[in-house]
Amino acid sequence: MRDRFADMSPATSLAGGVYGPTSLRPLIDEVLLALTSGAADRNGPLPGASHGGVTAAIRAACGQEFLPDHGVGAPAALRELTRAFAAGAADPADPRCAAHLHCPPLAVAVAADLAAAALNPSMDSWDQAPAGTALEPEIIAVLSDLVGYRSGAGGVITSGGTESNLMGLLLARDHAVRSERGADAARTGLAAVDAGRLRVLGSAAAHFSIARGAGLLGIGEDAVVAVPTDADHRMDVAALHRELAAQRAVGERPVAIVATAGTTDVGAVDPLPDIADAAAEYGAWLHVDAAYGGGALFSRRLAALLAGISRADSVALDLHKLGWQPVPAGVFLARDAALFAPLQRSVAYLNADDDQQSGYPSLLNRSLRTTRRPDVFKIAVTLRALGRHGLGELVESCHELACHAARRAAAQPRLELFAEPVLSTVVFRYRPASHRSDPDKVNAELRRVLLAEGRAVIGRTEAGGAVRLKLTLLNPHATTADVDGLLDAVVAAGDKEVQ
Ligand SMILES: Cc1ncc(COP(=O)(O)O)c(C=O)c1O
């Protein structure tokens, strides 16, 4: 049968169906050409323009008209906006773009994501995503296995570490309520318990999404206790025990201990086995935020850093960090699928109970979201394309780049290394020759100079009571010469700044 949409203009043609690819092909060619010309216009890791300049360029690309009365047509809109979008991007595929846990996505993952976008399955019901519903549990099983979970684990693909951490705290909170007041009490949430007694413990370097999640869940941001870190920026286990004992003495209850496997700045991995022992002793849920460090599990050499992760009740992994996926590609795992009980919903219009009994499974009870992209698809294609070995090699090459950067920073008199790299980040700062210069101001300013000139995107953070710079090395194709160039650019900008 002839598709009645087949002859439509490209602006209204559809991406799916038998004719979708035919409509898509010329449009994708436009996008690819414009990506190339936009990257050439930019000619660097980011546009050498202020925010005002980038805004003006985006407006100009549209002739100042974002919603014209009559559209300009698909090829023109794609051409104009894609070129300006690429020219105005901070491109993590450029080795000089090294500020954040913002990876350059693999071409294979982006190509796979195109298929997901074209088919547009939504993971909240089987009849919107039969293949997606079949695929996600397979990939969750593979990732659970990587973490070292036994069979029976469960999980879901999320929008990232923030959502995964929220889910870890949600399951921990409801587990605490159920164990204190029985399964029915969980429906009434915190009303069933004396919420003021609940505590969440994480290291002082835990990600801010933990405190935000505790706030959203009614546990309260103030209920989050920052356990001090040791000299290696890992949670100090003796301090954790002291805190837990003090809480017990006054009748407070540790709902969850959050261990971080790969802190955002220095990549420190908390001592997971010792923290698991403490969680078991005090009856606390153990959530491991491995949003950053989880990717190390692909490397047989670096996986040992995360030894003990299999003892966690729940785990956050982010494959849009050390996994080279386009955003979003978060993963949330729990050691036992039954722990997802708080998310259980029976909804008449999605996977009705009798449909499920007839063999149509539902993933609705795994996620906080209803409509949900099949982000599992690009992950599945990537795992199959590269295999564990291929992904492990990418992780190792980023780790080696970080080790090289640390050696160079330590050897350069104008730079001061803050911590030995664990994963793929290096924290350091420029050391002004003159004692009259304020190092915090100089480091902050030199970073802005590099940004303004479009020469390098270097991270900035605060650690050890001072402003520090950070290289987050997630580009596995970057070379040691690229890293040297970045450090040289920092020194040159710093020297110029203090003149
Ligand atoms: C350790 C850690 N946890 C959680 C997050 C939040 O992840 P997302 O940005 O994917 O929500 C980050 C982000 O950098 C992180 O570094």
Roughly how many Å apart are the termini? 75 Å
Report Rg.
25 Å
What's the β-strand tally?
A: 12
Please identify the structural class as seen in this structure.
alpha/beta
Globular, elongated, flat, extended or rod-shaped: what is the shape? globular
Describe this entry's structure for a reader.
The protein is α/β, with parallel strands linked by helices and 499 residues long. It has three domains: 76 residues, no CATH class; 252 residues, Aspartate Aminotransferase, domain 2 (3-Layer(aba) Sandwich); 112 residues, Aspartate Aminotransferase, domain 1. 41% of the residues lie in helices and 13% in strands. Strands 2-8-7-6-5-3-4 form a seven-stranded mixed beta sheet, with helices on both faces. It has a five-stranded mixed beta sheet with strand order 1-11-12-10-9. Helix 6 crosses helix 7 and helix 12 crosses helix 13. The longest helix has 36 residues. It is globular and about 60 Å long. The protein starts with 19 loop residues before the first helix and ends with a helix. The protein binds pyridoxal-5'-phosphate (PLP).
Task: Give me the secondary-structure topology.
Layout: H1 20-42, H2 51-61, H3 74-87, E1 97-98, H4 107-119, H5 130-147, E2 154-158, H6 161-181, E3 198-203, H7 208-216, E4 224-227, H8 237-249, E5 253-260, H9 272-282, E6 285-290, E7 314-318, E8 330-334, H10 353-357, H11 376-411, E9 415-417, E10 425-430, H12 439-452, E11 457-463, E12 466-472, H13 480-498
Parallel strand pairs: 1-11, 3-4, 3-5, 5-6, 6-7
Antiparallel strand pairs: 2-8, 7-8, 9-10, 10-12, 11-12
Helix pairs in contact: 1-3, 4-11, 5-11, 6-7, 8-9, 11-13, 12-13
Bound molecules: pyridoxal-5'-phosphate.
The site of pyridoxal-5'-phosphate has 15 residues, from α6.
